[in-house]
Amino acid sequence: NASTAYLVNYTSRKYGPVYVFRAKLPTFPNTWANTKIMPDGEVQYWSVATMASFTNGSLWDGVFDMQVPLDKDGYYTIVVSLPADRPKNATRENGIAWIDWGPGEGLGDPRNRKDWGALLMRFMVPHKDFQYSPLKAHSPEELASVMGPYYPRGYYTTKAKFEAEGVKK
Prior knowledge:
The chain is mainly β. The chain is about 5% helix and about 30% strand. The chain contains two helices and eight strands; from the N terminus they run E-E-E-E-E-E-E-H-E-H. It has helices spanning about 145, 160-165, and strands at about 5-10, 20-25, 45-50, 60-65, 75-80, 95-100, 115-125, 155. The strands form two sheets. It has a four-stranded antiparallel β-sheet, with no helix packed on it. It has a four-stranded mixed β-sheet with strand order 6-5-2-8. The chain starts with a strand and ends with a helix.
């Protein structure tokens, strides 16, 4: 889809059972408002989902723009873990979205990688004047510089460490 930018981040629980990432969320229209004309926004829709490999194609969990709490500066924090590893403070009330890591690929053979996963982020129909649109990058190496504060940056941690220290900014 030429009007949508897809970002993929491969993840592994071997680096830590909890993955945390942050970035600034593009503005988006309130599509629940039943407007007759699409309102303006930096994107028409944004989402992130946990998934298996592209050959498997399974999507496990996710959130979309209107579900993600933002801080006063428009930044989101998303925590990804198995339900058993979900930090107690990874809640909407604490300004954090949580998504389930998922069960692993389930290939039923030795390649079944339960600790492996991926995140798929979609920036649908970025506005042509959106300075930080990922569609303006000509290569993956340019994404961080083109997207600036909208480029997601993450780290691995543990449930206990996240509960004790909160989000690294």
